[in-house]
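Teaching note: in complex prediction, the entire set of molecules is handled at once rather than each chain in isolation. The prompt given to students was simply: 'Predict the structure of this complex.' The entities are:
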Amino acid sequence: MAKILVLHGPNLNLLGAREPDIYGRTTLAEIDARLLARAHDCGHVLESFQSNAEHALVERVQATMGDGTDYLLLNPAAFTHTSVALRDAIAASGLPFTEIHLSNPHAREPFRHKSYFSDLARAVICGCGADSYSFGLEQAIRFLADSGKTSRSRVPLSTTN
Ligand code: DQA
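The expected output is the structure of the full assembly:
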């Protein structure tokens, strides 16, 4: 069993209503429910945390240093392009993580092309809408299994959508 943390940055609480042409119509609650169900089916514990405040995200990352978190799925949202503080917290934690984006920032405005996280990330998944999170979780589950964090009841990929 492993412990997976999903961190969502600013404005992702508005998913479903926020610029649906870019971010889709799936709400954050729906994304979190899908991830929780899938992680649970695979015998893992998953917690989601969203904040619009940089300091709250930094503090949640710092807390992973004592709470047994094994893996981080991170959508820093706008902080992707601005936050040295969040980058430093993640570097300090030493957590393996996947950077997630619903949209493809590289196909958008130039200020979105810079990420303060990609060079530290194990993987970057973007442009797949809400599926970016699901693909990130599948990859994290494989990584954790390869790392010896075996799941109790591995569910075949073909049973999910
Ligand atoms: C985002 C992309 C960011 O550029 C943007 O600021 C977001 C969401 C995404 O998931 O596509 O808030 O991280």
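Point out the following to students. Residues 11, 75, 77-78, 80, 101-103, 105, 112 surround DQA (CB under 6 Å). Residues 80 and 115 are 5 Å apart (CA to CA).
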